[in-house]
Design brief:
373 residues; 13 helices
Length: 373
């Protein structure tokens, strides 16, 4: 049975994602028939797996479709679809898009004027993701004036962006800083994800703008976090979820005790650390900071692919009354091991599960409401 007939029979189907492995000359015609059959109910369209289509075939596909007026979410990959011409073609077919994902943005759109052009094309846009969620778009950077223009236009539910640079671009006399960009027009996004490199001064500057409506912040490639940067994060009064990470296991974010002792947005409920090295008693300092907060708010803490001693922190969690979940995933510690071949004591990384067993048993006995994973 042809795919268009199968889809046509699924009257409650509102989202469609198709995979095209080897393009053929008739693909655009067949896909057009499928999407036409769903035009009256299609709400979400994911075309990322159709990128083997040539640019001409993809353009022909869009031009053959009726207006998909109910589509609110659109996900695309490929250089052409990140250009003004490609987005214009998409907007003509899907004029009511609120959520847009593009693999990258062409150079003509990486500016304040480019952001304004995207608003004209998608007047209902409130969620924008540029690049892949996990690795962004390596080598692609957006000027902060792009972010400033986006935030001046409206309050976004979510902004997910690759690397950012202060600027300037051709329309900015002075470089724009992150805090200024996010607070531009008092339209701070509700959730912000930065997948590119982030330096400590950029984070520290968050203290200088009223960003009380920012509820979730994900920084996946923090190069350094000092005490000033921790103060900047602590100033985000509305922040409920914070994710911090280094570039990779080989390039972890190093967090010291004095930094984590300062970290504590007043309404933080979730804290996720990935590719982080906890120096000394940094883990215990973090939990102690959460315990001192009044009221206590932290509910969920996770460490993924991290290095550091956490047993003291697990013991301390029992006094954080709000706490509910702890995730220790691929946590490792450094131990000094004698190597007979070299006749030296050398540090090596070993699984931290055993070192935390006693602490987890203690926590389970005193706080059976805490879930471990």
């Amino acid at each position: 049975m042809p795919l268009r007939q199968i889809v046509a029979g699924q009257t409650r189907l509102t989202h469609l994602s198709l995979t095209l492995e080897e393009p053929a000359p008739t693909d655009a015609l067949h896909l057009s028939a499928v999407y036409k059959g769903m035009a009256s109910r299609l709400q979400s369209l994911d075309l990322r797996a159709l990128m083997p289509l040539t640019e001409a075939a993809a353009t022909s596909l869009l031009q053959s479709l009726p207006t998909l007026g109910f589509v609110r979410a659109l996900h695309m990959n490929g250089k052409y679809w990140g250009s003004e011409a490609g987005l214009t073609a998409l907007a003509a077919t899907c004029p009511a898009v609120e959520t847009l994902t593009v693999g990258e943005l062409a150079s003509e759109l990486r500016s304040g004027a480019g952001a304004a052009a995207m608003f004209r094309l998608f007047p209902s846009l409130n969620t924008l993701a540029v690049g892949a969620p996990d690795e962004g778009s390596p080598g692609m950077f957006l000027p902060l004036l792009f972010v400033a223009t986006m935030c001046a236009g409206r309050r976004f539910a979510t902004l997910s962006l690759p690397g950012l640079v202060p600027g300037p671009d051709d329309s900015a006399a002075e470089p724009v800083q992150l805090a200024q960009a996010l607070g531009n027009g008092n339209h701070t996004p509700e959730r912000l994800r930065l997948n590119g490199p982030v330096e400590a001064p950029m984070v520290a500057g968050l203290h200088d703008a009223p960003l009380s409506t920012l509820t979730a912040l994900h920084l996946s490639d923090v190069r350094m976090l000092d005490k000033d940067a921790a103060v900047g994060l602590a100033s985000l009064s509305g922040l409920a979820a914070l994710s911090l990470g280094g570039a990779s296991a080989r390039k972890p974010l190093v967090l010291k005790e004095e930094v984590l002792a300062t970290l504590g947005p007043p309404n933080l409920r979730q804290l996720h650390l990935k590719h982080v090295e906890l120096v000394g008693a940094a883990g215990a300092a973090l939990v102690a900071a959460m315990a001192r907060m009044s009221p206590q708010t932290l509910r969920h803490l996770s460490l993924t692919a991290c290095i550091g001693e956490m047993s003291a922190a697990v013991y301390a969690l029992v006094v954080v009354n709000s706490f509910q979940r702890l995730g220790l995933i691929d946590l490792r510690v450094q131990v000094l091991t004698y190597k007979p071949a070299s006749r030296q004591n050398l540090y090596e990384l070993v699984d931290a599960a055993n070192s935390c067993q006693a602490a987890k048993a203690f926590a389970a006995a005193h706080r059976p409401d805490i879930a471990f994973y």
